[in-house]
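Structure first, sequence second, as always.
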């Protein structure tokens, strides 16, 4: 497509959106500037979230409205905005270019490339602060989003359009689980956006390299508000990523967005609010911090078929300290989302990876989207597992256990071994069903812990040679499983 065509279309959009009305020829002046923000006087009719133009051609975003002055986020790091610079307001909202040309690209929160390639050619744009879809446009979550992780796709299933929090201390595998989920979307028809907030450049580069090596960048856009970016840019990053994913959803597509992470985002927002002299509240966060994340996550949903049937699944990450999930930002996020995956430092240290604490985790709506066969087997298994986790506590006291209890504990430990999974090894749904049937029927009971990977491998290999659909009757599955496991012995 010639660049002029894009320009024309954008112009047409602009004309379409033009509203006639009285515009005062207001001219403002910068009175102070620093830390990526400017204070402006003389624009009494400027609105919050409005774009302003500075004399040097750079732009700003009105963030704070005060009686005598405006607090403005500078949108151009190279801006030559100084005290005394002239400012005018535009009546425009902040937008980012959206569309398929963003796939495989790494951009900043304003859509500028960070990957050294030319700017993507985008005909459309989306508002960073877009309205979330109205209730009538939404539908129930009813289709699964497979993460490829055994513990998630069976015990904590996620549906397309769900908001599922990944919560845990630093270094417990949150980023890994999110990246693995993106990698698992290959061939699933899900476009992904990965938003990084406040990571160092080297960390960001490593993640992007992983996505590239795994072929996942082809269907993913990475939005980076890096560590050295201004608090304003870090604050905008998730909204920019959301606008990109939302545009695909509105076209009827399924999308997945990862916010890595919202603790850093909350801190950036707090810093910005303090710079803007907003009154600090609990833990010095501004009073509207809850609303900030609520309006971001409200935009994740599943649209009804009359509205294209697209979906936006959101995986926000939040970091805890010392496993404290009851602190301010985590509790806010827990109450906004449809469930949480809790990663535990002790499990991580004990080599239970992914370190998902099953009893502390919940997925409130994903079960409705689970394939009925998977759900049925998982239901049986989950009960056993939760019982085992309670019983296991007693074994620490060295109590003599009766045979039945001992058997339950043995099977629970076996399941914990089965649920372990290496990074970047997504597993298909048919395999999840297969191993659960094998486990529920006791076909794996004879496996010592170190024999578990081999048995699972035998099932996976059998399934590769002889694919079975999820709907195949249980008896047939069982026969095949017995055969594959016997062959491997
Ligand atoms: N399933 C896993 N198997 C092996 N190593 C893992 C697994 N999940 C995470 N890790 C490792 O744990 C470390 C911390 O993970 P990371 O995802 O960066 O944690 P967080 O984002 O919570 O800080 C990384 O070195 C990562 O490779
Ligand atoms: Mg991380």
């Amino acid at each position: 497509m010639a660049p002029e065509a894009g320009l024309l279309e954008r112009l047409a959009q602009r004309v379409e959106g033009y509203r006639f009305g009285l515009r005062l020829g207001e001219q403002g002046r910068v009175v102070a500037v620093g830390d990526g923000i400017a204070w402006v006087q003389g624009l009494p009719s400027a609105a919050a979230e409005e774009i302003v133009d500075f004399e040097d051609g750079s732009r700003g975003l009105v963030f704070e409205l005060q009686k005598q002055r405006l607090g403005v986020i500078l949108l151009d790091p190279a801006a030559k905005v100084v005290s005394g610079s002239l400012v005018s307001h535009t009546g425009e909202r902040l937008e980012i270019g959206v569309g398929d040309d963003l796939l495989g690209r790494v951009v900043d929160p304003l859509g500028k490339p960070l990957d050294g390639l030319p700017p993507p050619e985008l005909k459309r744009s989306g508002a960073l602060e877009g309205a979330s879809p109205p209730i009538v446009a939404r539908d129930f979550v009813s289709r699964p989003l497979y993460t490829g992780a055994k513990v998630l796709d069976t015990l904590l299933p996620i549906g397309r359009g769900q908001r599922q929090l990944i919560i845990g201390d630093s270094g417990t595998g949150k980023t890994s689980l999110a990246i693995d989920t993106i990698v698992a979307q290959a061939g699933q028809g899900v476009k992904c956006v990965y938003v990084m907030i406040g990571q160092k450049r080297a960390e960001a580069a490593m993640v992007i390299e992983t996505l590239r090596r795994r072929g996942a960048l082809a269907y993913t856009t990475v939005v980076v508000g890096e560590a050295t970016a201004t608090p304003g840019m870090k604050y905008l990053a998730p909204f920019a990523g959301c606008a990109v994913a939302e545009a695909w959803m509105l076209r009827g597509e399924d999308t997945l967005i990862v916010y890595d992470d919202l603790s850093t985002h909350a801190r950036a927002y707090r810093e910005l609010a303090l710079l803007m002299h907003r009154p600090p509240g609990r833990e010095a966060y501004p009073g509207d911090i809850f609303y900030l994340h609520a309006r971001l996550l409200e935009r994740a949903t599943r649209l009804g078929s009359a509205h294209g049937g697209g979906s936006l699944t959101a995986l926000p990450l939040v970091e805890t300290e010392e496993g404290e999930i009851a602190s301010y930002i985590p509790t806010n996020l827990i109450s906004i989302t449809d469930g949480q995956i809790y990663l535990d430092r002790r499990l991580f240290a004990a080599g239970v990876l992914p370190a998902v604490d099953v009893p502390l985790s919940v997925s409130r709506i994903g079960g409705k989207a689970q394939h009925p066969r998977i759900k049925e087997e998982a239901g049986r298994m989950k009960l056993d597992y939760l019982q085992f986790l309670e019983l296991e506590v007693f074994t620490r006291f060295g109590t003599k256990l009766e045979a039945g209890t001992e058997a339950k504990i043995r099977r629970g430990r076996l399941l914990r071994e089965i649920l372990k999974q290496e990074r970047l090894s997504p597993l298909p749904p048919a395999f999840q069903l297969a191993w659960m049937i094998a486990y529920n029927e006791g076909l794996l009971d004879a496996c010592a812990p170190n024999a578990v990977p081999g048995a699972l491998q035998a099932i996976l290999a059998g399934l590769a040679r002889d694919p079975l659909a999820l709907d195949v009757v249980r008896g047939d599955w069982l026969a095949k499983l017995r055969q594959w496991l016997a062959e491997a012995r």
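Margin note: The two ends are 59 Å apart (CA to CA).
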